[in-house]
Design brief:
two-stranded antiparallel ribbon, single chain, 52% helix, alpha/beta
Length: 296
Amino acid sequence: MPDIHLWRSILFVPATSDRFIESALHRPADVLQIDLEDSVAPDDKELARSRVQEISRRFAAAGYDVTVRINRPWRMALPDIEQSVGADVAALTLPKVPDASYIRFIGEILDELEMEKDLSAGHTRLIAMVEDAQGLENMAEIAAASPRVCGLIVGAEDLAANMRMAVTDDALYIPNAMAVASCRRAGIVPIGFVGSVADFNDPDEFRRKIKRARGLGFDAAFCIHPRQVEIVNEEFSPQSSDVDVAKALIKEFELQKAQGKAACTFNGRMVDLPVVLQARQLVERDEAFRQRKIQL
C-alpha cells in the first residue's frame, strides 16, 4: 500500500492523450492521476475509461502511485469505477462530492468490485473533491465518511461558479481553511492551495501559492502542468534549514526539561510543548521522506 501521507504532487494525465501519457512518465510526480473528467471530451469518455487499466499498469510499473479521477453523473461514474478498480490503482478521485452518503454509496460498489477482482478489502482509496455549496456545508462529514477516504480538496473553479464568487484568494481562503480543519480532524491528507489550479504560467506566483499552502497546513497539491510538479515537491518537502532548527529546538527543550523547566527560550522565542510538537512533526516528516528515498 502506498504511503498516502507522503504524497506531494498529483499530476493530471488525460486518458486519451498519448503525448501527455508519455510525458508524464518522465516527470518526478509522486502520483499520476489518470483523468476521465474535464480533460476528456464527451464523445471520448468510453474510449478514455477503456484505456485506464493499460495506462495504470504502465504508470505503476514505472514506480508511480496511480489515481483515477472519474466523472460525477452516476451513469458515467459507474462504468468509470468498474473500469478503474484494479491492483495498480491506489485511489479514485471523486468530483463534486455532495455529502457523506455519496462516499458510502461509492464504497459499497468498491466492496463488490474488490471482491470480484480478488483485491484486498479497502484497497481502493478515495479523494473527495468539494466543488459546490452543498459539499462545502458537509465537508467535515465527507472527510470522515469512510476509512477509504484518504484526502480532500476544494475544486476552486467549480466552487466559484456554483457560489457565484470570483476565483480569488479572498473568496477561496475560508473554504480552504475549512478543508484543512476537516482533513486534520479526520486524519486524512489536505490537498490544495488557495487559488486556481489553472494558473501555471507564472512559476514564481505559483511557488508563492504553494509556500502559503504549506503554511496553512496543506501537504499536497494537484498539478495540471508538468512544470508545477517540481515546485510542489520542493515546497511540500521539509526544508533542510527548518529541520536543522527544529532539531536544535528539541534538543534545547529536552535539556531544560531535564532541569525541571516546562518552557525555555530558543532563538529569542518562548518554547513550550505545542511548539516542540510542531518541531517533532517536521522532523518526523523529514525522516519519513528520507526513508522512502532509501526504499525506492
